[in-house]
């Protein structure tokens, strides 16, 4: 009861801020959607659809605020809109209409909020705040799970919060692996020594938590994330120390049961779980090819649908972001979804290159590198897990798209200044000259 009251005070206390500054509402929705604090309470507060209230308040605040109303016409945002249209069409033709509609309702609301977030991330401060919220919301379970692994000697599995997208230990491990590069980015950008130290500890706890999930896909995602952090980091000493200290220490804690499970990665023929995934992958591929619209959401999880393609295969989750989306959305939908990731990699590379143009744009270069590492972790771990429409990744893609838009606008402004200076025959204005920039006002503007 006390937890319910505390959540009510915090949520309803902050909700009016979404009406004053809609970007605050975006951050609150991100927190509710990823961390799911309502799962930690009992009583009536746990049954309230907090995400829906946050979304409604954010949209109202957005309409009445002075913030930009138009959604930027970036490649990422256009693809999100096209994806929204396509999943609506495939849901209409879905093989299991009622179940498909339930997942469509969730995914569509997520995509709407992603577009609103993209419209409101208009400054570097807001982009940075979004990265912080992504780290805090998922990082809570990384620190908690890491401590649990240390205190129990790795004898028990680390699980996510119930009734959430990361309840399954495999999904939690993937989300934590995606978060690792973002923690590293924030540590690189933080000036305060205690913040940097805290983020270093959080980084180590995430490694312990991922190992403690006993997830083989999570282990592959962890290896991909750590490898990319090392390869893409300009300062090699810091990642070497973080990886060299955290990883062996985490592995040292794990009992023989963990090592036996990880060894089964190379002996998949003898693992019923692995062979079951191979058979459902084949069925998912067949479902995706059966119609231009695919099978619609969750078609592969229903026996009478799977029996049409192979009666010997048991219905189950796709256990692969690639086959999940292909089965549900068909070849066209899969291509749209895949293009969002391709554009994400391109935007991240653009930020890396742009960050070299000015000394004060180094943050963009670091964000681009960290995003590349996070996306690689998502693709590697996601090859064996069903998180095709994961909020964390969609918001990260929106953040780097917004960051590119911010820097591109600065470049266009400088080009206009150079043209003006050429026309009047005067001296080229110094970059950033003009009205002095005041402090960041309330609402992270």
Q: Could you give the order of the helices and strands?
A: HHHHHHHHHHHHHHHH
Percent strand:
under 5%
Largest sheet: none
Number of extended strands: 0
3D shape: globular
Low-confidence stretches: 434-445
Distance between the amino and carboxyl termini: 37 Å
Query: What would you report as the Rg, rounded to the nearest angstrom?
Result: 23 Å
Percent helix: over 70%
Fold and architecture overview:
With 445 residues, the protein is mostly helical. The chain contains 16 helices and no strands. Helix 2 crosses helix 5 (97-120), helix 4 runs antiparallel to helix 5 (97-120) and helix 8 runs parallel beside helix 10 (237-253). The radius of gyration is 23 Å and the shape is globular. The two termini are 37 Å apart. The relative contact order is 0.12.
Descriptive key words:
71% helix; mainly alpha; 445 residues; 16 helices; 0% strand
Write the layout of secondary structure elements.
Layout: H1 2-20, H2 22-35, H3 50-64, H4 75-92, H5 97-120, H6 124-152, H7 169-189, H8 193-212, H9 216-232, H10 237-253, H11 256-263, H12 272-289, H13 303-309, H14 321-354, H15 362-382, H16 391-424
Helix pairs in contact: 1-2, 1-3, 2-3, 2-5, 2-6, 4-5, 4-14, 5-16, 6-7, 6-8, 6-16, 7-8, 7-9, 7-15, 8-10, 9-15, 12-14, 14-15, 14-16, 15-16
In brief:
The protein is an all-alpha fold. The chain has helices spanning 2-20, 22-35, 50-64, 75-92, 97-120, 124-152, 169-189, 193-212, 216-232, 237-253, 256-263, 272-289, 303-309, 321-354, 362-382, 391-424. 71% of the residues lie in helices and 0% in strands.
